[in-house]
TrEMBL record:
Organismal lineage: Bacteria, Pseudomonadati, Pseudomonadota, Betaproteobacteria, Burkholderiales
Source organism (scientific name): Acidovorax bellezanensis
Short name of any one Pfam family annotated for the protein: Amidohydro_2
Family: Belongs to the metallo-dependent hydrolases superfamily.
Database matches in Gene3D superfamilies: Metal-dependent hydrolases
Identification of the protein by name: Amidohydrolase family protein
Length: 308
């Protein structure tokens, strides 16, 4: 059984979400169910999740700063989410910075990026590319994927606006991500959720490690340690600490970040359990490496000042 977590040092949570379903449009939480959601049923998420809820869940493990990742607000008005988050931060001092949304395949994406970048809190963009459900179904060149010329034209605008990119894609699409990172070396690319190592068989983990190692060849890439839940499998430190340690060994302690993915990962475990497993995983490392992993890397990548 996982033990109660110790109080961690000051840290940055590099990936979490807020939503107010009473006032704001989040179709996936209201009237457009997501097929094949990776944790199965997500009915428990269909409630408001605001800074006070985050404070309750984090308790003694509250981060010193945090990065809000776009939460699939209505795609018709992505800048409205950023405007709302700015108001939220003014009231609660949470979140610290924002990774906003823009449809990179939209012919007018440069205008959306300009509007997002005009907000002082915005650091980057996340737009989920088209991906396959399994490694066996993965194909190159799909419309809406990282190979799509129109999508890549939109990606090219990120450098102009000084924005990073958050990528959510499973490990079997990381060859595409490597090409993207190499073709746009001035744009930081941050892989979300540890590359989604859902297949924990020996072969599955070996292929995941190989894919991560290929992406890590690009120096403008970084990795968030998050999203380690498995469908219908209890979340335990014994399962996840080795995965965390492998990921850090591959990407290096200077390019990995702690991230909770709350409240989504509340479907599989507690905030304290995530913090505790991360602390256990990095305990063998030098103090300077631990500080980088807890927050120094996130502060550098997302430009967060005065957080510790």
């Amino acid at each position: 059984m996982d033990h109660a977590p110790p109080v961690p040092p000051p840290f940055i949570d590099a990936h979490h979400h807020f939503w107010d379903l009473d006032h704001n449009p989040h179709p996936w939480l209201q009237d457009e169910p997501v097929a094949h959601f990776r944790y199965g049923s997500y009915a428990a998420l269909k409630r408001n999740y605001l800074p006070e809820d985050f404070a309750r869940d984090t308790g003694a493990c509250a981060p010193a700063a945090s990065v809000h990742i776009e939460a699939e607000w209505s795609r018709a008005a992505p800048v409205d989410e950023t405007r709302w988050l700015t108001t939220l931060a003014q009231r609660y001092q949470r979140p610290s910075v924002v990774v906003a949304h823009a449809d990179l395949a939209d012919a007018e994406v440069s205008h959306v990026l300009a509007a997002q970048a005009a907000f002082a809190m915005v650091r980057g963009i996340r737009h989920k590319p088209v991906v396959s459900l399994t490694a066996q179904d993965a194909r190159r060149g799909e419309a809406g994927s990282m190979d799509d010329g129109r999508w890549r034209d939109g990606y090219a605008w990120l450098e102009k606006f000084g924005l990073s990119f958050d990528l959510q894609a499973p490990w079997w699409h990381l060859e595409q991500a490597l090409d993207l990172a190499r073709d746009f070396p001035a744009t930081p690319l941050v892989l979300n959720h540890t590359g989604l190592p859902s297949d924990r068989s020996a072969q599955g983990l070996a292929r995941w490690r190989q894919a991560l190692a290929r992406l890590a060849d690009a120096p403008n890439t970084a990795l968030k340690i998050s999203g380690l839940g498995q469908r219908d499998v209890p979340w335990t430190a014994s399962d996840n600490v080795p995965v965390i340690q492998d990921a850090i060994a591959i990407f290096g302690a200077d390019r990995c970040m702690f991230a909770s993915n709350f409240p989504v990962d509340s479907l599989v475990t507690s905030y304290g359990a995530i913090v505790s497993a991360f602390a256990q995983a990095i305990a063998p490392l030098a103090p300077a490496q631990q500080r980088a992993l807890w927050g120094g890397n996130a502060a550098r990548i997302y430009r967060i000042a005065n957080w510790a």
